[in-house]
Design brief:
Layout: E1 2-6, H1 10-23, H2 35-40, H3 47-50, E2 55-63, E3 66-80, E4 86-95, H4 99-115, E5 121-123, E6 135-138, H5 155-161, E7 165-174, H6 178-197, E8 201-204, H7 210-224, H8 236-242, H9 246-249, E9 255-259, E10 265-270, H10 276-282, H11 288-298, E11 303-306, E12 308-311, H12 313-316, H13 322-336, E13 340-348, H14 352-359, E14 363-373
Parallel strand pairs: 4-5, 11-13
Antiparallel strand pairs: 1-2, 2-3, 3-4, 5-14, 6-14, 7-13, 7-14, 8-9, 9-10, 10-12
Helix pairs in contact: 6-13, 10-11
Length: about 375
């Protein structure tokens, strides 16, 4: 087996991007990323490469002319550990079920990261948390939703055999049961009534002013998630580009802000349509025929995800039930349109909403982990 190391090489980058389509060729659950977007992430013009001090290496493992694995090692200048040393990231990992291949790929990538001064290394993380991170470690029989980490079931074992261990875990919960819905709604509605009396204001996204709403969301999301391991800031321009699918995933009333008694936005929730089937219909392409297939498939989507919610730290610390009230505010509008929240997505183990979900009867059906190696 040979390892090809590169940064920007047109032919190797094409092969690097194409490899997942071979890995998941016979997997109907996989949601293919658009090839154009996958290529753009590895081009010199991508935002990551515009920041002085950021650096990376891509690796392809090959047996003869056959690719058997890939990985990217990266260093961000603004991602540091508690001592001020740079933290390393292992991302874009795909490989055959071969411990030797994985250990060569991951071991080589980690040696390069150590040479750059990294003491702690996280993975999988595709340059940052904004472009994809975490492994799925359980729940592989469930129906995959758009934006969900998805990989081969043996990947966690490959990571562990290469010296990494799970640092943090997340779960997704099924909330399709009508009794769960009712308990979930009732608790939130009670809290919202009390919070409105205190001067809080709940307001749906204005889909006619989506660019302005995304600007507000960018600021709130950045502050709400700044405590997450591996968090780094992202520019407004890059955030808007990544959030573009919301134009197709949000129906009126399916996202909202909450404002505190002083009138300042202090939280948000987003419940998008699950666009996994429309994206599968595109098959990773972005031509006019693929877009037509996407739009046709989108018409039949009924599944809705409780996908993202956040409160500013000063609001979260009050434990006032504001998050539950905000979720109930949007869930009511989802139900009124004849849709149904089906999955509470990617809930961290330490999240207050986890206990709330379980008290309401929601069942965790998928598990994910972020892995780490330390000195």
């Amino acid at each position: 087996m040979g390892l090809h190391e590169f940064t920007f090489d047109r032919k190797l980058t094409q092969e690097f991007v194409s490899y997942p389509y071979a890995v998941y060729r016979d997997d109907p659950r996989w949601v293919p990323p658009q090839r154009r977007a996958a290529l753009a992430l590895l081009q010199p013009g991508a935002e990551f490469f515009q920041c002085v001090g950021n650096r990376h290496r891509n690796y392809l493992a090959m047996v003869g002319s056959r690719i058997v694995g890939r990985i990217t090692a990266s260093i961000r200048r603004d991602l540091k550990d508690a001592t001020g040393a740079p933290m390393g990231s292992l991302g874009l990992f795909e490989a055959e079920n071969d411990h030797g291949v994985a250990q060569d790929l991951i071991g080589t990538a980690m040696r390069w990261l150590r040479e750059q001064g990294a003491q702690r290394i996280l993975g999988p993380m595709n340059f940052d948390i904004w472009h994809g991170y975490r492994l799925m470690t359980g729940g592989f029989g469930a129906r995959i939703f758009a934006g969900e980490p998805y990989n081969k079931p043996y990947y966690a074992e490959l990571f562990e055999s290469s010296g990494l261990s799970a640092k943090l875990r997340w779960h997704s919960f099924d909330i399709e049961c009508s009794a769960t819905h009712e308990r979930y709604r009732r608790r939130g509605i009670e809290r919202r009534a009390a919070l409105v009396e205190c001067g809080y204001r709940f307001e749906p996204f204005d889909m006619r002013r989506l660019d302005a709403e995304l600007e507000k969301l960018h600021g709130l999301l950045s502050r709400s998630y700044e405590h997450f391991p591996g968090f780094t800031a992202i520019s407004r321009c890059e955030f808007t580009r990544l959030a573009m699918p919301l134009r197709y995933a949000l129906l009126p009333g399916f996202a909202a802000f909450v404002h505190n008694p002083h009138g300042a936005a202090c939280g948000f929730v987003i419940m998008p349509l699950d666009l996994s089937d429309p994206l599968r219909a595109m098959g990773g392409r972005s031509d006019w025929l693929a877009r037509l297939r996407f739009l046709q498939a989108r018409r039949g989507v009924r599944r809705v995800l409780v996908h993202m919610a956040g409160l500013l730290p000063e609001e979260a610390s009050k434990h006032s039930g504001l998050g539950a009230a905000l979720i109930a505010f949007v869930a009511d509008r989802v139900l009124q349109r004849g849709h149904s929240p089906c999955v509470a997505a990617l809930v961290a183990e330490a999240s207050p909403s986890r206990a709330h979900l379980q008290q309401c009867g929601a069942v965790p059906t998928r598990e994910y982990a972020l892995f780490e190696v330390t000195p």
